[in-house]
Amino acid sequence: MPCLACLIARSLHQTFRSVWSGYFKMKPHALSTVGVLTLFLCRAYAWTKSSVAGAPDISNPKVVPGRYILEVSPTALSARDVNSSDPSTPAIITQIQDLGYAVEIKEDFSATSVRFSGVSIDIQNDNSSTLSDLRTIPEVTNVWPVEPITLDVDFDTGVSSRKWNPHISTRVDELHQKGLNGTGQRVCVVDTGVDREHIAFNGRIAGGKNIITGDENLEDCVGHGTFVSSIIVGQNKDFVGVAPGAEVFM
């Protein structure tokens, strides 16, 4: 039987864009965390077409004018244009400017990923040939226009059977049906804190320690720790966590 951490990890991956993402809107507080988080060390569960048949549709009505994502060679962003008035300007930006475009880097993805080297850019004088022009730059390996993604979500929280239950594809629902819900287990989480008074936790937050201040103030400064804890032990009419009978120590 899979370990509790495996089941939590599987469900975490498929729950991020579910009803729970909008349920917690937290006020800012001090950073708070302690414990050991091993949830993402387990192998992800494979999806099948039938297991995600109830997932919301995604529609891409149109591209965002002037916005592109560039995948570039690993050295493209580290190379600098020595002739530029700003020595920090990447050479690839100068190459785009040489094509006649006014360009600005919106986000450097290579700073946050070890597998993807690329940037999101904004071109003010975008035109119908921009995409093909960008592909002519030697250091550019791929280009995508930025597209808005809208989830067609229509959740009816007034009924007990939801259209999209992430526990089905992870088979956590089968364990719940057998009465296996984490009772007697403690899950230690390292994160931004937790709103221990939230009604969805029903007293399942066992305690913890703030490693920044050294006290037991667990107030959440971002909301992420509350979100993660809810995936584990949250329980109300809208959603049931992976292990609602367990407790979280933050």
Verbal overview:
The protein has 250 residues and is an alpha/beta fold. It has 2 domains: 1-56 and 154-250, no CATH class; 67-148, Alpha-Beta Plaits (2-Layer Sandwich), CATH 3.30.70. It is 18% helix and 15% strand. It has 6 helices and 9 strands. The protein has helices at 4-15, 91-98, 130-134, 166-170, 172-177, 224-233, and strands at residues 58-59, 67-72, 103-108, 118-123, 140-145, 150-151, 186-188, 205-207, 247-249. The strands form 3 sheets. A 4-stranded antiparallel β-sheet has the order 3-4-2-5, with helices on one face. A 3-stranded parallel β-sheet has the order 7-9-8, with helices on one face. It has a two-stranded antiparallel ribbon with strand order 1-6. Helix 6 links the parallel strand 8 and strand 9 (247-249). The longest helix is centred in the N-terminal third of the chain and has 12 residues, at 4-15. The relative contact order is 0.24. The model is unreliable at 15-49 (pLDDT under 50).
Entry summary:
By secondary structure, the protein is α/β, with parallel strands linked by helices. The chain has six helices and nine strands, in the order H-E-E-H-E-E-H-E-E-H-H-E-E-H-E.
Number of strands: 9
Share of residues in strands: 5-15%
How are helices and strands ordered from N to C? HEEHEEHEEHHEEHE
The average pLDDT value, as a whole number, equals: 75
Ranges where pLDDT stays below 50 over 5 or more residues in a row are 15-49
Q: Sheet bearing the most strands, described?
A: 4 strands, antiparallel
Distance between the termini: 26 Å
**Mind telling me the C-alpha Rg?**
23 Å
Count of the domains: 2
Count, helices: 6
Proportion of helical residues: 10-25%
Secondary-structure-derived class:
alpha/beta
Major β-sheet strand ordering: 3-4-2-5
The dominant shape is: elongated
